[in-house]
Amino acid sequence: MLDVRRLRLLRELAHRGTIAAVAGSLSFSPSAVSQQLSVLEREAGVPLLERTGRRVALTPAGQGLVRHAEAVLDRLEQATAELAGARQGLAGPLRIGTFPSAARAVIPAALTTLLREHPGLEPMVSELDSAAVADALRAGELDIALVHDHDFAPGPEEPGVETRPLFTEAMYLASATPGGPAGTDTAVLGHWREAPWIVATPRTLCHAMAVGACQAAGFIPRIRHRIDDFATMLALVAAGQGVALVPQLGTVDLPGGVLLTKLSMCRRTAVAFRSGAGAHPAVSAFTAALSAALPTELAL
């Protein structure tokens, strides 16, 4: 009989690539992960891993087992959701992930609604970049999260994770001086090709979006500052330190002297959860609370 916990380790190895990464994400030692995967191989009766020095790759049998593991874990999430629905009332922790601008603009009102209707729940909010959400969901560190993607930085398809659209925002070019005449995004961005740029830190979707948008306009941005907080970005724009791309939620409390040029590109936000968990009453309740908390101009 194959052990579900060991199947989860194999699935994580398929997604994360190294035993060390699996161990770090699940608070195990690398040797413990290796031992459990060796036991899984004995249970399976066929080699699941190919070891070359310190590198490990999945065999075809291992890759096939991962596909079955995804289905098994999906059904377990469905079973958990069904059992939760049979209980009277919602209670216990609900681990929520979010990106900073949504944490400020949407999450507080959603939590007010959630706790008014389900006082037994204990929401626990963590900020993290959307690129890190899938790993956190699969590892059980989060139950639900807000994620975003952009026209020039689409979110990848993540095995074991489902999403539901929540809202769409306009994107703006923020500058301290007027730009060129209005026109296409290519024309607007191209006007600032020689300017210094303020972008998010590398390996974030916001960084990929800004660089991708500039490249689509025919140039590579000359990056001066790397900042993840939009309020700080706009403060630097106001100080004449460069230009930046900022979503609608990031333009709250706009500093004096900052000009915004609306672009046709958008940022899309969705709710993400483990595959099979969409019917869990706590996931459904928080999703409903988020929808109710959205400003009118953002609601789908």
Automatic annotation (TrEMBL):
GO (cellular component) term, any one: protein-DNA complex
Protein name according to UniProt: DNA-binding transcriptional LysR family regulator
Similarity-based family: Belongs to the LysR transcriptional regulatory family.
SUPFAM superfamilies according to UniProt: Periplasmic binding protein-like II (SSF53850), Winged helix' DNA-binding domain (SSF46785)
CDD domains according to UniProt: PBP2_LTTR_like_6
Any GO MF annotation of the entry: DNA binding
Keywords from the UniProt entry: DNA-binding, Transcription, Transcription regulation
A Pfam family it matches: LysR_substrate
Residue span, HTH lysR-type domain: 2-59
Record carries keyword Transcription regulation: yes
